Amino acid sequence: MRFYRIDHIGTVAPDLDSQVERLEGLFGFRRVREWDNPAAGTRGVRLAVPGSWGQTWEVLAPSGDGSAIGAYLEEQGGRGGLHHVAAEVPDLDAARTELESRGLKATAGETGRWLEASLTPPEHGPGVLFRLRGPGDLGMCGDDTGKPTKTSDAAPAGKSLGIVGLDHVCQAFMDREELARWYADLAGFVKVWQTPLDEHPDMADLVMNIPGSSICWEIIMPRGEDSFIEKFYSRSGAAAHHVTFEVADWDAAMAACEHYETPTFGENSGSTDGAAWRDTFIHPKQTGGVLVQLFWEERPGVWVRSDKIPPGAE
Q: Which of 68, 95, 219, 253 is within CB 3.0–4.6 Å of 1 for a Cys-Cys bond?
């Protein structure tokens, strides 16, 4: 099984309209498709992410009776959050066979044209949920009934974060090398960076490229005593920890947060090879249940160092 395209990041929100309004305003996303499909149990909106290679951000809410999205919200205590990552594979039947051979439970979607599965090694319990489809299909979220939304390609009016790309999704796991080997073998992810084990006192990370996509996959594991990752893992398991966006202008991004009364926390700054970088986080309470990281770098590659593969990392 190989991924050849990430289609979208799927989120769930108890209040679809207010969440979309926040994404269009602060985040500068543009809605491109919307639908209400009671038969599939969802209503939703797709939004284009500035700087992406065709990837979108999707917000889902329940529609009709017996909605699986409604059941998910109930399980989450009414809170929204990151629900799934959607990818295309060359052959959906072959993907199902591969998943089942590895002990991964694959559930067919309502239309039968897509699969849903956690791709984390099954002995470690559920991880990030993926939705997989063959080339050219819609209908993964009930959006096959949706209508395109006519919007301008121009930047949204007013202040926004000035996002220039969706950089990566981050997953927590207890052993970064184990999960990296698994994703490489299962879906063709390619390692592009890992920090030295002793670089940070409470964590170590590893970054992989998802073939056919500008999006990377980061794996963070705990180190030392009282690691925030270990606390997260004990609470949520091998779940998505955060999603990271790059911004074009740091001061403008912070001004947009202030304009929309959106606090940030955990800011870091520094320089690599003489080029400056900065990063910070927006709390899930401000983003519909998804922890968001923002970063700016003076020169490409100095923050995440994704342009370098250190010796012995492969």
A: 95
